[in-house]
Amino acid sequence: MAYLLPFREENCSNKRIYTEIQRGPVSRIKRTFVYRRPIRIRFGDPIPVAQIGHPGSSVNQIVETLKKTYESLFPSPFMGPA
């Protein structure tokens, strides 16, 4: 049986990764003042692929199911109540 493993990465971007790798004075200042929050990765429970859709499901139905599942597992702290 195949599973999907939902995860959410927070406080990370390509700019931050490049800043961490570089050793110049600007990068040092950015690491100290701009990118202070720790990188965080959260994982949800594995979801059986069979639970997401069935052979007759359309792509849009599967995408909507995945989106709702992800948003219920990892609600955005920036979104207020609907």
Would you write up a description of this structure?
The chain is 45% helix and 15% strand. It has helices spanning 14-21, 25-34, 49-52, 59-73; strands at residues 3-4, 7-10, 40-43, 47-48. The two termini are 36 Å apart. The chain is elongated, with a radius of gyration of 18 Å. The chain has one domain. The model has no long low-confidence stretch (mean pLDDT 86).
Quickly describe the structure.
This protein has 82 residues and is an alpha+beta fold. The chain has four helices and four strands, in the order E-E-H-H-E-E-H-H. The protein is elongated.
Give the tags.
82 residues; 15% strand; two-stranded antiparallel sheet; single chain; alpha+beta
Walk me through the topology.
Layout: E1 3-4, E2 7-10, H1 14-21, H2 25-34, E3 40-43, E4 47-48, H3 49-52, H4 59-73
- What's the quaternary structure here? single chain
Total strand segments: 4
Contiguous uncertain segments of 5+ residues: none
Output the helix-strand order. EEHHEEHH
Q: Please report the number of helical segments.
A: 4
% residues in beta strands: 5-15%
| Distance from first to last alpha carbon | 36 Å
Radius of gyration: 18 Å
The total tally of domains equals: 1
Largest sheet: 2 strands, antiparallel
Derived from helix and strand composition plus strand pairing, the structural class reads alpha+beta
Strand order of the largest sheet: 1-4
Question: What would the principal axes of the Cα set say about the shape?
Answer: elongated
Helix content: 40-55%
Mean pLDDT level = 86
